[in-house]
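Q: My labmate handed me this sequence with no annotations at all. I'd like to see what the chain might look like in three dimensions before we decide whether it's worth expressing. Could you predict it?
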Amino acid sequence: MAARRGDSSKPARATGAGLAPLVLVVDDEPAQRTLLGYNLEAAGFRVVTATDGEEALLLVAEHGPDIILLDWMLPHLSGVEVCRQLKARDDTRDIPVLMISARSEEDDRVRGLEIGADDYVTKPYSVNELVARVRANLRRTRPGAVGRVLEVGDITLDPERHQVFRAGAEIHLGPTEYRLLATFMERPGRVFSREMLLDRVWGRDIYVDSRTVDVHVGRLRKALRAHGGDDPLRTVRGAGYALG
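A: Here is what I predict for the chain of 244 residues:
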């Protein structure tokens, strides 16, 4: 059975709807990576960094970040090409991409947006404004992480009150099952692999057997059917789990 090991001295941050959003910072300049990483973590986000476009694509596949801060000029594979590839794939096209560039001309902004970037920030930039833009983009893809009530079918999750209801009846969940449900509800219909769920629910800096996911999904299923109703979770053989 696969297991994951990391630095347990740095626990994953949590929000009302589960683990804090994961931001991938892609920049070949160490000072910029450090600056962005420090400020994003201070703002409550989890951060993983890449130094070039090829590494960025590998980390996207491995960690499934919630949002990407992508520098335009990168070695080996440009930020423009990375963005183009991500937006061309069904499994990554919905990840918000904030393009960061020293190019401030209108033509460059238009090009960045035309290849699929969700936002465009020019250097030098205000770190506070950049963090605000990250939050704004996450309201669409991680609404629970910014406090919005989630509703999928007859299931409602209120991250501020930390309560879950199904067909009006309150569902009592353990903390791990709650984070699992929040993850599924933020992206209904999406199939999450065990590895992706481990990243989003447990965090990558821990030691967990991947089969642990199956156990907690089973507990979540049981809790959601405590007052009757069909099983809302779907098992996709060889791929993972999805809600609806």
